[in-house]
């Protein structure tokens, strides 16, 4: 895990918004491993400063860290003055689907407002290289699976709509004539399927605040004894065993996909492209429960509960385009995802 030239100051700098979060912290590690210097901007609204320190323990380079809200234009401008970024990776935003229906304005303010401010400051500094965290949620309820990038998009909740609107804003930016802008936009939209697992060190991982909304952290907290039992939301879907099927992808694979997208920016011209980041393989809720029991050696008690509003039966990727154009594909299988998730949970029962 030691990276030999970790202290070199000649590394190209990459701005990582939301870099203290679950996915961003793993991306910081892979950026260092690939020879870059991550610079993190995060307001710590859903993360801890400790995550960035742990990145340094894994790869011996502590990312520069700015505790800053993306909507703070002056603060962000100061960060751009101090650094010379090769590209920006934009993770910062709110992501709880259910909460987004309760407080939609906050989601639009944070997700859209933060992105607009970021893009305006980037334009001021003639920086057009952007990699954006989008989501498979932009496919709404797909007519068939596997899902490829040409499928129609739609939104079923304000969180998903914020991702969809940002994708459209970024396409508009990339299509605008260069003579009206400081820089040509070279934008990659990465549509994640379901990120799970943790770095093999057990030092960084997913640390949800409160009761987890997502399946894997919920199962992990049942396994460790913090939660009594899992509610399986619906067992009457048209799937292998009636429970919902998703494309779970190891977060380290996902992080490597970002490095591949960053490196591909050099060879693609200006524009805006979307890629699915998934494995192409779907697993049901009950298959996930069994796999976690095997990895952890713990029982996961569960009960069948009503369907969760807004959930779909099947969601998994056709990930061919990322393989063909980014030269990336997921390496880790389900067992490894579970072993790493359990190592993180058991070594950090209360998170960071
Ligand atoms: P996370 O909450 O762990 O990370 C997001 C980070 O952004 C947090 O550290 C938070 O403090 C920070 N942040 C939020 N608003 C901010 C603001 N206004 N200014 C500065 N920092 C701010 O979430 P994650 O799981 O790492 O997700 C990262 C990105 O990927 C998000 O945009 C999310 O919507 C997207 N995504 C996540 C998933 C998933 O299942 N985890 C799936 C698809 C897409
Ligand atoms: N599930 C349960 N019980 C739980 C939690 C989830 O049965 O306590 C089921 C769900 O019904 C679904 C599956 O487990 O069938 C996965 O649910 P998650 O909440 O973990 O993930 P989703 O597929 O609903 O959504 C996630 C993110 C979204 C993102 C989407 C696609 O939460 O933000 O993946 O990337 F858009």
Overall description:
The protein starts with 12 loop residues before the first strand and ends in a 5-residue tail after the last helix. It has eleven helices and 14 strands. The radius of gyration is 19 Å and the shape is globular. Helix 1 crosses helix 8 (251-265), helix 3 packs parallel to helix 5 (104-124) and helix 5 packs parallel to helix 6 (158-175). The chain has helices spanning 22-33, 49-59, 73-82, 97-102, 104-124, 158-175, 215-223, 251-265, 285-296, 320-326, 334-347, and strands at residues 13-17, 37-42, 64-67, 85-90, 129-135, 186-192, 194-196, 230-233, 245-246, 248-250, 271-277, 283-284, 302-305, 314-315. The relative contact order is 0.14. It has a domain at 12-200 and 248-277 and 318-331: 3-Layer(aba) Sandwich (Rossmann fold), CATH 3.40.50. Strand 2 (37-42), helix 2 and strand 3 form a beta-alpha-beta unit. It is of the alpha/beta class. Nicotinamide-adenine-dinucleotide (NAD) binds next to helix 1, helix 5, strand 5 and strand 7.
Would you spell out the secondary-structure blueprint of this structure?
Blueprint: E1 13-17, H1 22-33, E2 37-42, H2 49-59, E3 64-67, H3 73-82, E4 85-90, H4 97-102, H5 104-124, E5 129-135, H6 158-175, E6 186-192, E7 194-196, H7 215-223, E8 230-233, E9 245-246, E10 248-250, H8 251-265, E11 271-277, E12 283-284, H9 285-296, E13 302-305, E14 314-315, H10 320-326, H11 334-347
Parallel strand pairs: 1-2, 1-4, 2-3, 4-5, 5-6, 6-11, 7-10, 8-13, 9-14
Antiparallel strand pairs: 9-12
């Amino acid at each position: 895990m030691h990276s030999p030239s970790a202290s070199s100051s000649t590394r190209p700098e990459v701005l990582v918004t939301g870099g203290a979060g679950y996915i961003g912290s793993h991306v910081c590690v892979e950026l260092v491993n690939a020879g870059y210097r991550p610079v993190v901007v995060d307001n710590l609204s859903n993360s801890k400063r400790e995550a960035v320190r742990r990145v340094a323990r894994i790869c011996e380079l502590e990312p520069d860290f700015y505790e800053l809200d993306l909507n703070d234009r002056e603060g962000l401008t100061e960060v751009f003055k101090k650094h010379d970024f090769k590209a920006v990776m934009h993770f910062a935003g709110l992501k709880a689907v259910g909460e987004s229906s309760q407080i939609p304005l906050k989601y639009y303010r944070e997700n859209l407002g933060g992105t607009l401010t970021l893009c305006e400051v980037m334009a001021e500094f003639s920086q057009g290289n952007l990699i954006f965290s989008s989501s498979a949620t932009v496919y709404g309820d797909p007519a068939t699976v596997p899902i490829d990038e040409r499928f129609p998009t739609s939104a079923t909740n304000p969180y998903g709509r914020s991702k969809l609107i940002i994708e459209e804003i970024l396409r508009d930016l990339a299509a605008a004539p260069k003579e009206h802008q400081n820089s040509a936009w070279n934008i990659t939209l990465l549509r994640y399927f379901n990120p799970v697992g943790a770095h093999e060190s057990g030092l960084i991982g997913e640390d949800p605040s409160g009761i987890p909304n997502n399946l894997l952290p919920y199962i992990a907290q049942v396994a460790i004894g913090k939660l009594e039992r899992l509610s399986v939301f619906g067992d009457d879907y048209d799937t292998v065993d009636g429970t919902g099927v998703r494309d779970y992808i190891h977060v380290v694979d996902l992080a490597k996909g970002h490095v591949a997208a960053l490196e591909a920016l050099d060879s693609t011209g200006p524009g805006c492209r979307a890629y699915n980041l998934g494995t192409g393989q779907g697993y049901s809720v009950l298959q996930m429960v069994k796999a976690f029991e095997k990895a952890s050696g713990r029982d996961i008690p569960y009960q069948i509960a009503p369907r969760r509003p807004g959930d779909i039966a099947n969601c998994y990727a056709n990930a061919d385009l990322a393989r063909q154009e980014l030269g990336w594909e997921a390496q880790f299988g389900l067992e490894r995802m579970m072993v790493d998730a359990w190592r993180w949970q058991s070594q950090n029962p209360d998170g960071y």
